Amino acid sequence: MAGESPDDSKSRFLVNARALAIAQLVSYAIPLMMAPYLARTLGLEAFGILALGLALVQAGSVVVDYGFNLSATHRIATSKDNKRATNQILGAVTACKTVLLLIVCLSVVSYLLLFPDSQKYAPFFLLMLIPLAGQTYQPVWFYQGIELMRPLTLYTIGSRLIFLCLTVLLVHAPTDLIWVALANGIGHLAAAAAATYTVLKLGYRYKWPSWRAMKAAIRESTPFFWSRAAVMTYTSGATLALGAFAGAAQVAQYSAAEQIYRGLQALFSPIPQALYPNMAKERNLNLFATVLKGTICLSIVAIAAGILVGEWLLVILFGEEFRGSYSILVVFMGIYAVTMPSMLLGYPLLGAFGKLDIANRTVLLGGILQVLCLIVVYISGLGALAVATSILLVELSILCFRAYYAASLYRKYFAQS
Prior knowledge:
Elements: H1 6-65, H2 68-79, H3 83-114, H4 122-127, H5 129-136, H6 140-145, H7 150-170, H8 177-201, H9 211-233, H10 236-246, H11 248-268, H12 270-282, H13 285-318, H14 326-351, H15 356-380, H16 384-416
Helix pairs in contact: 1-3, 1-5, 1-7, 1-9, 1-10, 1-11, 1-12, 1-13, 2-3, 2-9, 2-12, 3-5, 3-9, 5-8, 7-8, 9-15, 10-11, 11-13, 11-14, 12-14, 13-14, 14-15, 14-16, 15-16
């Protein structure tokens, strides 16, 4: 904001980072708390199918979001004092996401019709489209852009509590798998309704967009989409690929380790999300350096914790049959240590200095490397540990590329100042 002091900027960043941290923590902590119950109630095969369904939702979210969480956030952050422009962005992005949601739904239905072997769990996969719809209409990008995350945090907590309560009430056997999807969907739809209501209460409106506005929104977000699609190859895409060539049991082992990794990642991911709009406006390199140093310290702690208590934690949370996930978890702790500084060097730093294309290229390169790695894993007949190791190699490559460009950027910036 005009006339805002550096202290005010830092304070606003800390408030939003704290709100995002709480929302992310709840989003991952509650499913992590539910995982032991679901693993024991559903059994190994159904738990693996559940992991595949969640991966399907994550992959669908990448398509539906189409990178708007970055492009729209940046546009709103730089024009949030212009309510008319913000309303136009709201309308155009929401309309685009609706069209993309329909495309994803039709794609899932077509897949189930074309491949009869998948029809055993067809009702479950169809019901998983409900939480996808709920996520589609939660305008997280809007709240990040206006730097007002507290309301969204409350809705996120409510959504996950609804999911928790309904799951405990309805899921008691492997045949109750579909109720997990339904409970998840109801929670996300409730959050979407509450978040949309607050948008309107704040005085904003979803302006009906023209085709030109929609095409412009898609065109602006396309580079971000390709980067998110590349990320998908070593997140949900890796899970889907593992399920295709290794089976539900391997997916279950992989998912148990990944659940802990995602829970830890939720503690950190709000920091770059809150830092991105702040850096886009302020370019506060001192703040960035402080955050980066703290991140490196947390990376060291993560690796040590994974090695020392990882096996014990897996057995406590998921049961004795998941002890074999320990080696996978250790690899995931390495991934966590690499991705934390990498995320900061990406959009918050490179994006703030107009180098979003470089951040996107590093992710695209990672996606290509991951596809090649998955092909090798498939040909070699390897399983979950090999998939996790391939992700570590890809994330390490991305970090090296970003560190190189960031160092060059720093040298140029200080040479000119």
